[in-house]
Amino acid sequence: MKTLSKLLLAISFAISVTTSAFAVTAVSWGGAYTESQKLGYGDPTGKALGITINWVDYSGGLSEIKAQKEAGKITWDIIDVFAMDTINGCDEGLFVEFDFDKDFPPAPDGTPASKDFFTAMPSKCAVGNILYSWNYAYNKNNVKGTPKTIKDFFNTKKFPGKRAIYKGALTNLEIALAADGIKPGKGGAKIYKALNTEKGVDRAMNKIKELCTDPKGGCVFWSAGAQPPELLVSGEVVMATGWNGRFFNAEIGEGAPIVQVWDGQGLDYEYFVQVKGGPNDANGMAKKALAMMTSTEMLAGSAKYIAYAPWRKSSIAIMEAGEPWYKDGKTNMVPQMPTAPQNTKNYFLVDPIFWADNGTELGEKWEAMKAGL
Amino acid sequence: MSSETQKILTTDGIPLEVSLKKAERRNKIKAFLLVAPLLLFLIITYVFPIGDMLMRSVDDKMVTEMLPKTFKAMEKWDGKELPEEEVFEAFYLDFRQLVDEKREGKLSTQLNYTKNGFKSIIKKLRRKSKNFEEGNYKEQIMAVHKRWADVEYWKAIKRRAPAYTSQKYLKGMDMFKNENGEIVSVSEDRRIHRILWLRTLEIAFFVTLFCFLMAYPIAHLLATLPMKYSNLLMICVLLPFWTSLLVRTASWMILLQQQGVVNDFFVGIGLVADDARPEMMYNKTGTYVAMTQILLPFMVLPLYSVMKTISPSLMRAGKSLGGTPIVAFWKVYFPLTIPGIGAGCLLCFILAIGYYITPALVGGASGTLISNQIAFHMKSTLDWSFASAMGLMLLAGVLAIYWVYNKLVGIDNIKLG
Q: Out of A162, B2, B15, B314, which residue is the most buried by the measure of CB atoms under 10 Å away?
């Protein structure tokens, strides 16, 4: 008995040593999102490569990885980050720069990776993972009529009631201009052109201010992604901007009486970056895992669990062939994708370079505007 | 006689005085060794990080080293019109060097802190500068982007010349030192930090006040009730302590929002009309309610521990000497609780001044406090030196309050238990 237990101990130790040697640590936002990543492509990739991919939660930002680097002990391999963080982290030298078409596999039809992805990457260190949308939704029990456009979100005469908007300036300025009559143009180029001038920024701020001080309107500022559907369902607000995956979960997953509107939506992205000097950087395992996780088939996998669109155009074909793609076995996922043709009639791509450039200053102006409400 | 007393010797012939001093010194060393681990711990976890923060907030050597030629050429520049060709040339040479070392990204981040808009124009300059022809760099750089032809951006570069700087502290007060060395305020629509400092102080002050007003009767009740009731009450006070902060915050949101439980109740009993529900959430009221509830135990516990030591007979004596209950309370009981009040108020205030998750969730438009700003610069912009500067300003504020308290009440009077 004693020898047996010793043997078991030795075996478990040996296993733990071998697995930890090839355990890639991926860091992401947690909750349903990480679950979709783990089930959609994390576990299949790990199985195919014979390694373990451990998922660790964090709350965004680069402070932790910067601290790890400064302390000289990096424990993370792959991080799921916002566009702005890929730019800042790449500039700081925290992440590995990719040779995109060499490091990432082409689409099944042979299209090189750089052509298969929805747009170009904001920095050399980024590889796209999902696209999500900042769209808006309303509670159909509390709104008379059907809001259809982004202008309706600001139309308090026709649709009176409070609105919930994001607490920061990000995307609020864009939708304000879209609602104020600026046609976004290709990928929102015209909106950002306007926001590059002081006049444009003032125009956007005034539009928001008007909505928030309107006695028939008014604003609730949300800070956590779970808030917008909650605020809609409780009747606290009649319309809310938010992330489409959260609205989808409330609508399809929980049967809440909310309807999404895609006009004037802002497409935003999540990226993976690989940490320079991470535990599996030198042995190439991190890059190998990352390349597989962002391949056509793997990216499509995550959309089984959450309504965020895979970055690769070729992934959509796999989903279409497999409809109903959602895990409940009866919901078609392609129309729920922020990139679906009927959802991208009037949209803008959130411009990470614009926000990396002007984020601090616009944030200050935004706070000053809010303080005057 | 006197000479003999001076020379009292111990049994082994050493003067008593020396022997005593020796023993005392040994004791002192022992005592020091006993606290040494703790002292070391404090130095490592407290003094060292704060010192590091201080250094970070004033150290600006990085940019100084990145653009040595530029700053040298800029010494002669008066900072009014666009600089001359030699500054552009020096900048170009420094910049090429940085591109070769792949450090131009760091420069763009640093300059972007001083003036927004540098990130993209430096990226653009990196792309275009590969094909620059020799000579006339001013024209070539200015052609890359119109911002390179804007004197404001060159002034911003010049401001980064000194190796040590107070700019981050000034920025925390919405001010900056312009190229003539004068300290001026930033434009009006960007003066956000002063608003945030005042808002933070205001919220911390009122939360402390509300905590005090609510905790005093509770603590008194706890201290005077018989043990079996007071234990139960104590558990009620401590229960929120064991609940997650986010859960407590979320429950307040459900209770107090306009379509929430409390408002539904008010409408149900006819206190308010259905279309005129009071707003108790997503504004300062929400912040006050949620934070007061969260910080209440920190006020109750010090008050309780002090009140517990006050003998009930003192109040009885006060009354029997002719005081009304109010006079007896005011003249006898209240002064005895001041150490507890001091401890509780300081504790609540210092905790409240650093809060940011709760206000961000329940505070609506007024939900941004100075700590949110610190977190933003720590996590998003990675401007750790600015975050450090604001952190130290916050620390200085707390120390100032501590000092005022010491002057007014005396710190020896504080009692936590």
A: A162
- Rounded to a whole number of angstroms, the distance from the CA of B325 to the nearest CA of chain A is 47
Question: Which of B143, B165, B146 has the alpha carbon at shortest distance from B71?
Answer: B165
Q: Return the closest-CA partner of residue A19 out of A56, A54, A48, A45.
A: A54
With CB atoms and an 8 Å threshold, state whether B195 touches A368. Answer: yes
Provide the number of CB pairs (under 8 Å) joining chain A to chain B.
113
Does B364 sit within 8 Å of A61, measured CB to CB? no
Nearest CA in chain A to B117: A357
**Strand pairing report for A163-166 and A78-82:** unpaired
Task: Tell me if chain A has a CB within 8 Å of the CB of B185.
Answer: no
Q: Which residues on adjacent β-strands are paired with residue B175?
A: B185
Structure tokens at A323: 């409809």
Q: Would the CB atoms of A167 and B257 count as touching at under 8 Å?
A: no
Q: How far is CA A325 from CA A300, A318, A330, in A?
A: 9, 9, 8
Domains identified in chain A and CATH numbers: 23-131+270-339 (3.40.190.10), 133-268+344-371 (3.40.190.10)
Angle of helix A352-371 relative to helix B118-129, nearest 10 degrees, comes to 160
What does the domain layout of chain B look like in residue ranges? 2-58, 61-162, 193-413
Q: Between β-strands A127-139 and A258-274, what pairing exists: parallel, antiparallel or unpaired?
A: antiparallel
CA B216/CA B292 separation, integer angstroms: 13
Q: Which residues of B1-30 are buried (b: 16+ CB within 10 A; e: fewer)?
A: eeeeeeeeeeeeeeeeeebeeeeeeeeeee
Residue B381 contacts A, CB cutoff 8 Å: yes
Q: Which residue of B lies nearest to A225 if distances are taken between CA atoms? A: B361
Residues whose CB is less than 8 angstroms from the CB of residue A34 and which lie 6 or more positions away in sequence, other chains included: A28, A55, A57
Q: Which residue has the tokens 């796999």?
A: A318
Contact list, B380 vs chain A (CB under 8 Å): 61-62, 84-85, 88, 359
So what's the ipTM on this one? 0.82
Using CB atoms, which residue from B123, B365, B384 is nearest to A373?
A: B365
Q: Which CATH class is domain B193-413?
A: mainly alpha
pLDDT above 90: residue A13: no
Decide if A269 contacts A281 (C-beta within 8 A). no
Across the interface, whether the CB atoms of B260 and A234 are under 8 A apart is answered yes
Give the nearest partner residue to A88 out of B259, B260, B382, using CB atoms: B382
pLDDT tens digits for A190-208? 999 999 999 999 999 999 9
Reading the block at residue B52, the tokens are: 């590091």
DSSP secondary structure string, A322-341? T-S-STTSS--SGGGSTTSG
Q: What percent of chain A has pLDDT over 70?
A: 94
d(CA B257, CA B262): 8
pTM: 0.84
Angstrom CA distances, B44 to B35, B38, B50, B261, stand at 14, 10, 10, 49
At B18 the pLDDT is 86
Q: How far apart are CA B249 and CA B348, in angstroms?
A: 17
Kindly list the residues from chain A whose CB atom is less than 8 angstroms away from the CB atom of residue B195. 367-368, 371
Residue A271's SS3 state is strand
